[in-house]
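FAQ: What does a ligand-bound record look like?

Like this one, built around zinc ion:
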Amino acid sequence: MVFEVIPLGVGSAIPTRTRHLAGTLVRREGRSVLFDCGEGSQLQLVRGGLTRGALDAICITHLHGDHLYGLPGLVTTLALLERTDPLTIVGPEGIRDVMRAMPGLKNDWLPFDVAYRELAEGFEHQVVFEDDHVTVEARPIDHRVFCAGFRYQEKTRPGSIDGDAARAAGVSEGWQFEALKRRETVTLDDGTEVTPDGLVGPERPGGAFAYVLDTVPCEGGRQLAAGADLVLHEATFTDEHAERAAEVGHSTARQAAEVARDAGAERLLLTHFSARYSDPAPLVAEAREVFPNTDAAEELARYEVRR
Ligand SMILES: [Zn+2]
Ligand SMILES: [Zn+2]
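The answer part, i.e. the structure of the complex:
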């Protein structure tokens, strides 16, 4: 089981010559989910050769422009490409109105259905997208406007079966194998009962990715990141500007590292860098003092999550 996390933009608030605005694509077996859609996100998708495959859902954290203003453009492009598959758009209450206020989008001319999943202020935890293989859950995080973080989680798969041993026990391939994998007891034609014990290995947990921006360090972020293989956490400022970070509802790199450490995460990527840092090295250095397995997210790099 493997999926890829591909940052499209690692800047905050305003783009720079080297940084785009927030957006991160997660791809798994040709299907993808986009987290945030700052202005320019669709250009980054094109530049990265990431437009093939099915985009199932777009999850917007909050209604600040640097996370949102690429959405109408991307949806328009999907329409011009004559997409017909339904699209899920997740975001704070009001996101549907934002989209409907767009002159080009207010009529029902889209050739596909959009299912809006709006998160209401005060919500605690919600599964916002699910297919056969993954779930995406949302939790509130703590920014200066209502904001949600997300966790992309592969579903647990059944343990693998010892085929030779199962056949020797008289179990047939097909539905009997499948029943054993579900840890059910199989009754053979002669009445013998075969249990999965010793024939089926332990369940195989899937990988998890946490998307935590924009926020001050908070409990919601820690819960999203709990035991995650990869955490993308905002790190707008260095320690020197910790007071400013708190004032404007952002985190320092060290605080992001503390969240990853406290959550028992595997790996941390920092993102959402203030334009004042032309090089993210000082942010990474501060974070590594707390959580060594930290890097600065790079635009269009492909970070693999494998379990
Ligand atoms: Zn932002
Ligand atoms: Zn913001």
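Follow-up question: can I read anything off the structure? Yes, for example: Residues 71-80 form the longest helix (10 residues).
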